[in-house]
């Protein structure tokens, strides 16, 4: 566990943050349903919103609404939005019909597509009322997926935060891993920790409500995703304590994340090295091979996924890139501070977005690679800039050792493609 880690004499931790509040170009928090509904096997996500929201979910999921078994949309008509009808009565009827058809549902999330002032419904009160009606078979919770209030990954944060107050209490000393990962990646993380003798290990979200973790004063938790600020705060209010570490992207981030947990549970250096040596070596080799086209290249992060700061740490320290600007929708230093500590001072750190001003900075800098949302990628490509879709970094397995080479490859592929196109043009 005593592998030295070089921390720059001057890092981005104390770099003044450029705070921008203007037009944004991001997906809304409803998008998180696309991965959460697959993770939580007995949950159903009922979006209370307009036909536009239904179309978004159709497009994002690539299926017809209700073709997937665990999410759908309760569509508000014009009379509902105008406050001319009692939408609460209609919502109660829709929920009753849904639960009568689907007795397998144990958790029902009412997801607001807009603030309550817009949809004329207080979904928090509706959730309490419906829980009383349908308990103990079903627990009804609510959260906001509004794009007015959130970026797309914060839908997961809002969902998990809504679950924390109703988790059972426990006095047991347990490790809680917080954040949704693909099952194969989660299994890798749990497997490494168990080999070190760490346990019991619980996860949030659990696959089924019956497996929901307890939380209490002896619970320690580690976040798997850097966008879980509200969930972390909710767990701390329940008495749990967070293990602070860089996020597990790449060999360095994964090692430091695992090391922080190992230290908390008293794992000795020899055991840590025995468990991590082989996967660390594989990760370093995979990163070196995949980052050949990244070394010496510049990168500009536009704010989108909330993964920007940990990814910038990975790309600058492990892949040899130079960051020009690292933009993130919201910066929670309690979560990403350890990653900021490792990024050498130099790049602009920006929070929020004024898209026109940021595009001006992109055009002036002409970076080798720009990480941005789907809506900005094509226009920038038309201007001769190489881009990477931020959303792909959320839907692709990128955490921990075995995915480290794949993560580097996601950034190198656009640059390789651009180089090949230039060769073809010359030919």
From TrEMBL:
Pathway assignment: Porphyrin-containing compound metabolism; bacteriochlorophyll biosynthesis (light-independent)
Co-factor binding details: Binds 1 [4Fe-4S] cluster per heterodimer. The cluster is bound at the heterodimer interface by residues from both subunits.
Binding site residues for [4Fe-4S] cluster: 28, 53, 114
Keywords attached to this entry: 4Fe-4S, ATP-binding, Bacteriochlorophyll biosynthesis, Chlorophyll biosynthesis, Iron, Iron-sulfur, Metal-binding, Nucleotide-binding, Oxidoreductase, Photosynthesis
Keyword rRNA processing carried by entry: no
EC number: 1.3.7.7
Record Pfam families: Oxidored_nitro (PF00148)
Role description: Component of the dark-operative protochlorophyllide reductase (DPOR) that uses Mg-ATP and reduced ferredoxin to reduce ring D of protochlorophyllide (Pchlide) to form chlorophyllide a (Chlide). This reaction is light-independent. The NB-protein (BchN-BchB) is the catalytic component of the complex.
Subunit structure: Protochlorophyllide reductase is composed of three subunits; BchL, BchN and BchB. Forms a heterotetramer of two BchB and two BchN subunits.
Protein family (similarity comment): Belongs to the BchN/ChlN family.
Name recorded for this polypeptide: Light-independent protochlorophyllide reductase subunit N
């Amino acid at each position: 566990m005593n592998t030295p880690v070089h921390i720059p004499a001057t890092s981005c931790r104390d770099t003044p943050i450029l705070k921008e509040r203007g037009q944004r170009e991001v997906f809304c928090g409803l998008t998180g349903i696309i991965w959460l509904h697959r993770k939580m096997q007995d949950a159903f996500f009922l979006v209370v919103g307009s036909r536009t929201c239904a179309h978004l979910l159709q497009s994002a999921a690539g299926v017809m609404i209700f073709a997937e078994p665990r999410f759908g949309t309760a569509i508000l008509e014009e009379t509902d939005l105008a406050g001319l009808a009692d939408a609460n009565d209609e919502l109660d009827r829709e929920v009753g019909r849904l639960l009568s058809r689907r007795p397998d549902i144990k958790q029902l999330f009412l997801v607001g597509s807009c603030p309550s002032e817009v949809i004329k419904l207080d979904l928090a009160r509706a959730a309490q009322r419906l829980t009383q009606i349908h308990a103990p078979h079903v627990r009804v919770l609510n959260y906001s997926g509004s794009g007015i209030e959130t970026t797309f990954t914060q839908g997961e944060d809002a969902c998990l935060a809504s679950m924390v107050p109703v988790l059972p209490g426990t006095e047991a000393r347990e490790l809680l891993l917080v954040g949704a990962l693909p099952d194969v990646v989660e299994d890798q993380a749990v497997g490494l920790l168990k080999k070190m003798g760490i346990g019991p290990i619980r996860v949030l979200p659990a696959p089924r409500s019956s497996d929901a973790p307890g939380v209490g004063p002896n619970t320690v938790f580690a976040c798997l995703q850097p966008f879980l600020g509200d969930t972390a705060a909710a767990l701390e209010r329940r008495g749990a304590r967070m293990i602070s570490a860089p996020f597990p992207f790449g060999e360095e981030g994964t090692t430091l994340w695992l090391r922080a947990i190992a230290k908390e549970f008293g794992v000795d250096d020899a055991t840590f090295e025995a468990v991590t040596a082989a996967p660390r070596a594989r990760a370093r080799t995979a990163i070196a091979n995949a980052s050949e086209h990244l070394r010496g290249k510049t990168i500009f992060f536009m704010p989108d996924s909330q993964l920007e700061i940990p990814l910038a740490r990975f790309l600058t320290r492990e892949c040899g890139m130079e960051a020009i600007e690292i933009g993130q929708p919201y910066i929670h230093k309690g979560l990403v501070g350890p990653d900021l500590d490792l990024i050498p001072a130099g790049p602009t750190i920006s929070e929020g977005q004024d898209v026109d001003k940021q595009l001006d900075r992109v055009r002036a800098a002409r970076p080798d690679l720009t990480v941005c949302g789907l809506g900005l990628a094509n226009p920038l490509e038309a201007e001769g800039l190489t881009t990477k879709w931020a959303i792909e970094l959320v839907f692709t397995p990128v955490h921990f050792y075995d995915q480290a080479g794949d993560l580097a490859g996601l950034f190198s592929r656009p640059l390789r493609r651009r180089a090949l196109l230039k060769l073809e043009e010359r030919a």
